[in-house]
Amino acid sequence: MGSVSLKIGDGTARFKRATFCSSAVNIIMIFCVITTNLFALYAFTASPKHHNNHLLLHTQKNFSLISEQVSLILREIDSSQKKLVQMEKELLGYENVDLSRPNIASELKLYLQHHQLPLGKDSRTGITEMVASIGHSCEKSADLLSQYMNYKIAGPCPDDWSSAQKLILRGCEPLPRRRCFAKSVSKVGLYPFPISLWKPVGNKTVNWSGLGCKNFECLNGKKLGRDCIGCFDLVNGYENQRYIKARGKNDFVIDDVLALASGGIRIGLDIGGGSGSFAARMAERNVTVITNTLNIDAPFSEFIAARGLFPLFLSLDHRFPFYDNVFDLVHVSSTMDVGGKPEKLEFLMFDIDRILRAGGLFWLDNFYCANDEKKAALTRLIERFGYKKLKWVVGEKVDSVGSGKSEVLSAVLQKPVRV
């Protein structure tokens, strides 16, 4: 750079003029400073703004993706909840019939409507509405069910008891109620109790519509099942000797069985009781027995009622409409053979156990064992309940609906006290 001279004495100071080379260097330095400042200014202004914009766009895209995923999850949860609610209603029997079908009878729609409780939620049961009882398998027979519910209100019911029974056998149980008058039968010739127990029942006391036979003489010539061959003939044949006279070692006499009971026998249930002769013999001994039956090919229910006994029109697939531990005796024959999977027999056996009181008797009467495997399965099932074997007899019996002889099991078992 240039030199500096100082003249002492005159009170002034003076710079000498810089050379060309030093001036160029100064210009270059100034340019560098300015350029550096410009880059610094760009670094603090332009570059962060561009980076922030890019970061903001990226964040917005991520938020949008997350929002879409959350919305999708919420929709899936909502859909799953609706499906669970619908499945629960179907399992409980609610809304199991599609009432939007065009061929659904108006009476069925009215019957299945939910009725809100007038005072809101019931504090004891927790329910808010009343729902009509109807079998959940009714949906599978919706057309037949709608036909069953198509009638004139307060008029005569169609003569369709066979259709009702067909629905029951298809699992449509319980059936819906109807607002019509059932066909009346005059019931001419009924006898007073206890004479009615063994007096022949007149043909005019029952409804023969929907049946192949139109009188009891026709029925007595038919094999209606293993436990009902001539079972409507109360005068001739073996029916009036059943349970008081044994034809083989598998036939137990009622008095012998009653002698095994502790605490006495007062009320009982006969499952698949045919024409009601077991209940009749028990009635003679002051024991009240309800006979469970259906009108398969014969008017069993009306015949039992004409004898002054209590028929229960119910399929074996239905839970018994009785409270726990109420019966002193449950009598069942080959009708306990419900067929199908072993679990089906288990469901029935557990329900029998439920309604039988501790110390009560379970009388298995001439149960047909088609083979050793079936007999072993039944034996294992009975042993699971821990019943005491009071009588246990395995023998042979002529199979009335088949050919030759079949092995049968008869037993009297006592239900234990469980804690």
Task: Please characterize this protein's 3D structure.
With 419 residues, the chain is of the alpha/beta class. Among the domains are: 106-169, no CATH class; 195-414, Rossmann fold (3-Layer(aba) Sandwich), CATH 3.40.50. The protein is built from 11 helices and 13 strands. The chain has helices at 20-44, 46-92, 106-112, 142-148, 161-169, 216-220, 254-258, 277-283, 300-306, 342-355, 372-384; strands at 4-6, 13-15, 115-116, 129-130, 223-225, 228-229, 267-271, 288-293, 310-313, 327-332, 356-369, 388-398, 405-414. The strands form 4 sheets. Strands 9-8-7-10-11-13-12 form a 7-stranded mixed beta sheet. Strand 12 (388-398) and strand 13 form a beta hairpin. The chain is elongated. Mean pLDDT is 82; it is low at 1-21.
Jot down its keywords.
419 residues; alpha/beta; Rossmann fold; seven-stranded mixed beta sheet; 11 helices; coiled coil; methyltransferase; signal-anchor
Give the helix level as a range of percent: 25-40%
Instruction: Please state the structural category.
Output: alpha/beta
CATH class identity of the domain at 195-414: Alpha Beta
Query: In what order do the strands lie side by side in the largest sheet?
Result: 9-8-7-10-11-13-12
Estimate the strand proportion.
15-25%
Shape: elongated
The low-confidence parts are 1-21
So, CATH architecture of the domain at 195-414?
3-Layer(aba) Sandwich
Q: How would a textbook summarize the main sheet? A: 7 strands, mixed
Pfam families: Methyltransf_29 (PF03141)
Transmembrane segments: 24-44
Subcellular location: Endomembrane system; Membrane
Family: Belongs to the methyltransferase superfamily.
